[in-house]
Amino acid sequence: MRHAGKATAITRRFAIFLALALTINAAASEETGGKILIEDLLKSGWQIAGYTGAVDNWSTFILFRHPSETHLIQCRAGYDVTREPRVQTNCYRLR
Fold it and tell me: Please, which residues bridge with residue 63 across strands?
């Protein structure tokens, strides 16, 4: 039973981080300057291949794959109330 509760907590934590990562304000997404956004990845058919919590305990790594691409994309998404914008993401291609 203890393992089921832990798995549920991890899943809930991931869902919260993903929801926060997708709430990046519209102004930031309009002026991305070539930056890869999680929202754009999901809209263009990229799928979540895996995820894990980061050592810093405030962010998570999300790995994306696309059926027609040969590379993966890794994103680090986090939420920090002391920063503006509060949702921080950094995505990059893995080749």
Answer: 50, 74
